[in-house]
Specification:
Elements: H1 8-26, E1 32-38, E2 49-50, H2 51-64, E3 70-75, E4 78-83, H3 85-93, E5 98-105, E6 123-124, H4 134-150, E7 154-162, E8 166-167, E9 186-191, E10 194-199, H5 201-209, E11 214-222, H6 229-237, H7 242-251
Parallel strand pairs: 2-6, 3-5, 8-10, 9-11
Antiparallel strand pairs: 1-5, 3-4, 7-11, 9-10
Length: 252
């Protein structure tokens, strides 16, 4: 089971443990202070993110307003994350520029030689299969796939999208016999001013049939201008709206 720091009080206890460890290692006392740090400036001390844990933390932030400070160490005017890598990345995905940190000033700290920006460390899959985050983990997997093939980061922003304006990216026959629609947000990609469905065609179809105007979505937004292959694939399909998609499905 994935475990995260429950709240600020629990994080203070973790901070005390780190301070006690530093006292033993460096034979001196260290203090800390609260500071708001720009996420894009933070350096990592872990070599990778766990995709499933990232999905879990991200989901908690979206649905439960989960917000616990990270812990950083300040050395040579640079801040190194020692606790909270997944929180940093999740905050940035949600289009937030800064994160609150309990920062320890420690010029004796020895960061790993490979340390890089916290937004540039890769993701790995641990193989944990947790039903409650299944659809959210799919979003994170897709995010990492796009990040690898395009060499840029994508934000993942919760939005309410107009159902009629969504553009399908697969043939409608593929949803026949699929599992019951999930209640999780669909996954969409923003390209120019259009929104392409990546995951959630069945959810979108049923929302359209019920006459719902809006649907909850997690929207991938590239940090830099890029044309993902799924956009080109969608244009080849020639299905320009969920209305066309539904008509083709009902005729099949």
């Amino acid at each position: 089971m994935i475990e995260v720091v429950k709240d600020k009080n629990a994080q203070i206890e973790r901070l005390k443990t780190i301070l006690d460890s530093y006292k033993l290692i460096y034979e001196r006392e260290f203090s800390f202070y609260e500071i708001s740090l720009k996420i894009e400036d933070l350096l990592a001390t872990e070599p990778y993110l766990e995709a499933e844990k990232l999905a879990f933390v991200y989901k908690k932030m979206v649905q439960e307003n989960y917000d616990v400070p990270i812990i950083t160490v300040r050395k040579d005017n640079r801040s190194y994350v020692v606790d909270g890598h997944h929180r940093c990345f999740s905050k940035w995905l949600l289009n937030q520029e800064y994160i609150l940190s309990y920062e320890i000033q420690n010029e004796l700290f020895k960061p790993p030689w490979w340390s890089k920006n916290v937004l540039d460390i890769p993701m790995i899959k641990t193989g944990e299969d947790i039903e409650e985050i299944k659809d959210w983990a799919t979003c994170i997997d897709t995010l990492e796939y796009l990040r690898r093939i395009h060499g840029i980061n994508f934000k993942l922003i919760p939005m309410k999208l107009e159902v009629e304006n969504l553009i399908p990216t697969q043939y409608p026959q593929r949803i026949i016999g699929s599992r019951a629609p999930s209640k999780a947000p669909i996954l969409a990609l923003k390209y120019n001013e259009s929104f392409y469905i990546i995951d959630g065609h069945t959810r979108t179809y049923y929302a359209f049939k019920k006459g719902e105007r809006y649907i909850d979505a997690l929207v991938l937004v590239p940090a830099k201008e890029v044309t993902p292959g799924i956009v080109l694939h969608s244009k080849k399909l020639g299905i320009n709206s969920i209305k066309e998609f539904a008509k083709m499905l009902e005729m099949s």
